[in-house]
Amino acid sequence: MSTSQVSGFNTQVSAPGPFGGPAGPTVRAVHDQFHGDLLEVSMGPQHPSTHGVFRMVVTLDGEQIVKLKPVFGYLHRNHEKIAENTSYLGSMPYTDRLDYLCSMSTNWAYALAVEKLDGQPVPDRAQYLRIIMAELTRLLNHSCLVGFLFNDLGTSFTPLLYAFREREKILDLFESLSGSRMMCNYQRFGGCRVDPSPEWLEAARRLAENYPRFLDEYEAMLTGNEIMLARTQGIGRLNSTHAINAGLTGPVLRASGVDYDVRKIDGYGVYPRFDFRVPLGAHGDTYDRYMMRILEMRESVKILSQAFRDLPAGPIMDPKAKLRGFRPKAGEAYGRIESPKGELGFYLISDGSPNPYRYRVRPPSLINLTLLEEMCLGHTVADAVVILGSIDIVLGEVDR
Amino acid sequence: MSGRHPLLWTSRSQHPPLHFTFTHSTPTLLETAEQIRDRLVTRFPAAQIVLVPNPGPAAEHSLLLDATHAPDIARFLRDDPVLRLDYCSNVTGVDWPDKDITGITKTSVPDPAGGPPKIVEQKTVRRQPGCLEAVYHLYSMALKHGPVILRLCTANRIDAVTLPSLTPVWRACDFQEREIFDLYGIVFEHHPDLRRLLMWDEFKDHPMRKDYVEPDDYEWEPTAHGAVLERAKAHLTPATTAIKEGPKP
Amino acid sequence: MLGSGIIKGLAVTAKNFVGSYYDPARMTTVEYPEQPTVLPENYRNFPFLVSENATDPMGTLRCVACQICEKECPPQCIIIEKSKDKKPDANGKMQLYPAVFGIDTSVCMSCQICVEVCPFDAIKMDKVFEIAATDRFLDLYLNREQLAKPNTYYHQIHPEEAAEVDGRLTADRKAAEEKAKATAAAKAAAPVAAPKPADSAVAPKPASPAVKPQDEPRRLVSPKPGEGGSPLGEGGPAKSS
Q: What is the pTM of this model?
């Protein structure tokens, strides 16, 4: 058996060896001497466990990962360049396509940055609606993520389909409000586009009310599962110092015990009026990252019930807000929100023209991958898949 | 490989409990950008630190650092007990192309005939050299304040496009500096792994630059207009323009 | 006990399995295409052009070729060419009309921005989603004949929104008529010492349409005096929201 037949991949390990040697050794045939030899495997871009067109170049010693290099750009469409050639309003539907699971949050982040750039006030009702949308988005993102995580663990499709069932209910709400399930295009600078009817609010309130029942069922199925505990506890540990330095945000960071939630820190929108807690992990392993999602969903339900209770009447758009011919004042602004994936920021420079001079997305999915290699080193390929799943990436946002 | 995977047959109760936090913190920065600048100037007398005002309503002013002292200043800002900017949130590039600034100078020439002095307008065109800029948004996770915005400028846009990498200070800059290198062409010195991030390795240009020219790989589309139509003209044939009228009823 | 977590999980799946036979909350799929889902009122897919009259769609388009949507469209999938001549619109006012109006639905991303920026309520979102074509360019390019759909169709797919739009347009039209009436009365009053109020009151009467959402030909055939020469884009059903 020749070398190339064995692996099917490029068997020349050209980079310096992970053990400090010069260049890595050439892979020999499997039957000859398996242990101690390095094998370079390209996982992705067409791999079901990479959640899209993400590629990891993994160097393996046996089944153990000794090196991992993420490769991006398969979904790159230069969103920032497109936005710099489009009006401010014209970029709004494109932001839906960044994190296509959470278009409502992404819309909000962009609207927030533009409002900060222009000093645009937002009426109270719109602020509450934004929080309702963002927290519903968090529910659907985290339910899906947990489903995908178990899919990565090899539990087939069952948890994912249960999650999709619940997600579909939220997407139906989004569809009846904004016209589209996923590409909502709902937020505008200075408010929201559509005012929900009382029936819609009632349906959403009932959904949020019933959500803990689904979470209980979900947890009964998953949280105590011994196989799941064995596969996630102690896997992909991340300590808080490294996580902070690498700029990780969101549930991944909080699983390592760092108390940092932009909803609490910046208090954007009307979040300071809400009473909710931020869960923190103790170990920073995959299990904690899973639990973060479950606990955050429970807090989101609390926020939602408060939002439906306190939702004020009034306009949903600031009367001075302009839809067409919007030209913000010259200046720059960095607006950020706590999206379900982490800190999603938009950095805008305006020169007073209808198009942004500079438009930048700070993608939490991309930056949360900074420590992927460190988290995966020493684990097996099967664990790397789970660790990647627990980081929660969406390739539309990673590659932009 | 044995021993790496202790089978943790633990139930949930044996896993140490996760805890919650209730804090509502205030996002105020202890020091203004001016105060930080003044403190940095006393700490690094040789460094050139310019306060760049932000005229917009956000009013987040930034500090333009010189390239040589930037890593030291960054390290100082990270470790300083008052600021502790341990979290670098956003790193991005901005392209400022060369700009021609036309100034009009008016000089009054006394009329030799004794009348009122004539005012002669003279147009001067001054070329403001462009630069590539890297912008860093820093926050503190420990003290929960921010942002402090740092800017670094290259000498020009053509050959002197080197800036010191801040990845050794904040690992968060790793991918983002690679992205700037990819899309803007700023070369970050001492970056551990400076490769293209989003475009493929063989790609030549830097697409986010303002003067980037798209390759002429026009794909026919029925609704070309404006700039696209201009580009399309070289590719259009009479047959392809005819469909605009649609089928005759 | 070891394994109790797995057994608990299996109980959940068993509950869902059995529940899927009688509990509608657990059985959420529909048998498409035999069983179509009900699309919500706000559902949007691709834009269409509203025409007042089903029998003469090209003559009664609300669109006046102002090209705002063409400029605002983020992916630039709309193409409009203005007409050389003017035709009377639904109000009987002389307006331009789109000589060419095309939407490339292979580029359109259904963002609804064209609908939001249109000051004439001339373009609305359709609900047709079963669109398949064999030619990726020509079949997905919709010209104005394919795009024009009567107001009755708009009422079918978005009843509430269409009623609101019609009410607004009627109100605008009425206001315009009042104004025309007032100016006509003023004109009549100025040269003649004793104006006949009956004349000016009667003249625009047939122009006031009922608030009825049907495709009655609501178009005035002859332009009203004093309004025919008004510049484009002034008055009319324009209402910027």
A: 0.81
